[in-house]
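Dear U.,

For the methods section draft, I wanted the exact inputs and outputs in one place so we can describe them consistently. I've listed the two proteins in the order they'll appear in the manuscript figures. Please don't edit the token lines directly; just add comments below if something needs changing.

First protein:
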Amino acid sequence: MTDHLHIARQVIAEEAAALNALADALGVGFEDTVTTILAAPGRVIVSGIGKSGHIGRKIAATLASTGTPAQFVHPAEASHGDLGMVTKDDVVLAVSNSGEAPELAHLVAYTRRFSIPLIALSSRADSTLGRQADIRVNIPQLGEACGTGTVPTTSTTMCLAVGDALAIALMRARDFTPENFRDFHPGGSLGAQLLPVRDLMHKGDAVPMVRNDTAMSDVLLVISQKGFGVAAVIDADERLIGVISDGDLRRHMVGLLDRTAVEVMTKNPRTIGPNMLAEEAVAQMAGQITCLFVVDPDAQIPSVVGVLHIHDCLRAGVV
């Protein structure tokens, strides 16, 4: 093993151990933080300087994207007018490993002046920030992974993990759903994967459907006209009872035109619901399946409401 690889593994092991220690150390401060944020009518204002500032930006972004309104305010800019962004309805989360960052002084004083809840994310409960805060979320005082105690590594990893834990705890408390998440992430592959089937499926006259007693000569016309290579077979009550695919056609090639749809179809076909995520629908198409019919399970009669082709998902960026 090279020295470089040995060092890398050692750093990761030390940070993993720190995260385990952090999980055991979290307590009432974290509980109070979640309760306070849930009760606040405003936003979570996150602030920090240096590496703590970078972590703070990520925490604010994660909170905002998971249903908790949040904004990062740079402490230096706060001292030059951005304190006006902070209201009495907000909660301030200050990130500082030492709790002694002088750049946070004006922001801390502002929260004390206007009785704005102040949460300290720090390794020192007895620091200036810790003493001023209403709530303290303490991370364990462990050495940095650099070995010299000078490079923020273990401490920033723990702060980042606390931010993630806070976002997920709040998300679940708010019953934040994948659909809500998609509303905040409409772009890119993540947004595509969170698209519901109803946004991609074909509806109405575009759906290839035939009655169970339809002659196969007419079924072939429907399959050809609609262009999906399949047809849904429904009964008199418009319930889906089967699907005819090219595989069914090959298996019944002899005497095909003398048969009806119900004689050729595959019974009990796999279906999806309109609210299923597109990513889940693609997983259902594993193997040779290229099309799935969409059935609304909540309807009084679970009839076909659409059809989804794998190409629709690929065009949308779902992989």
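Second protein (the one for the lower panel):
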Amino acid sequence: MPLSRRTFLGTAAAAAALSKVARAQGQTQGPAGLPVAISSSNGLQAVGRAFEMMQKGTDPLDAAIAGVNIVEDDPEDMTVGYGGIPNQDGVVQLDASVFHGPTGRAGAVASLEGVKNPTKVAKLVMETTDHVLLVGAGARWFADVNGFARENLLTEKARKVWLYWRQNLSANDKWLEPPLDKLDPDVKHFIDLFGWDDLRKPTTGGTIHLSAVDSRGDIGGCTSTSGLFFKMPGRVGDSPIIGAGCFTDNDVGSAGSTGRGEANILVSGGHLAVEFMRQGKHPKDACVEVLRRIAKTTREKRLLEADGRPAFGITFYAVNKKGQYGAASMYDRSKTGRPAQFAIADPRGARKEDCAALFERRPS
């Protein structure tokens, strides 16, 4: 739903026409102007909020964090913040990073418990310490002394999903598998979204990344996640790693990712995408090149399909200083058939567009 130019978009026909033009032109013909905010597909409201704030003169990082906070606060989004999927012990541990282009400073937290907005804590790490990354008990202590209350982030829905996963984890433990005819509706919906194989094996997770450039050309980026579903306690992915899950250079642009963090860490994908943009590549093409690098360097058989292609999903999002934007996913759609998309907001409005893709998903 467009969040600006409401008078011009006064009819459904006009809105549909504009959306069609945006999808066709957005990643190839340059920006419609600044500000611009880009994020993962779960960030439609987030980019809308960031865009509106930047229009009013808000710093791009503050706008990005405010947008991401919407998703962190939403218990229905089970990939970040409050309601995020817990680790294998049933504990929600969150990771986040922020990067402020104008000052060149960054902050991050990892394995943080009891704070639904880890991006806010990461920003305080950036602003009030000489450090970049705080983890675990240290991150929790830092949140305590800065007045963050200890909250229970495990929602009833997430608890039921975790319990079902635990009950079905092994046929040799003491848990009894619940009958399928009594499957809880919340659990069934989760399985329909992510697929039983990915629920049974801790290989899938969710994240939100948001990069923003304001009308002055200043840039900010942030990433937030609850990490891999049912991960090992203390596992840290790419989201809080500066240069992997998020990287910003105020002279060039910003980039970040969602998906398999271990694959991104090995190539420093956020930094690599920005470097490709520095060389003159369009943000979309920069994202594709990072994916190509990951596919080339993934060699472990357990991480490959029978045809040698990566057996995991990962998506990159990027915007340059001029406001050109793009996103690319390893596959054009998920294993459950959902198309790979991203969220974008600019003077044309807030909307979703299809990602570019390195590979097409072959029929199973």
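Candidate sentences for the figure legend, describing the second protein: The domain at 12-359 is CATH 3.60.20.30 (Glutamine Phosphoribosylpyrophosphate, subunit 1, domain 1). Residues 107 and 129 are 9 Å apart (CA to CA).

Thanks,
Y.
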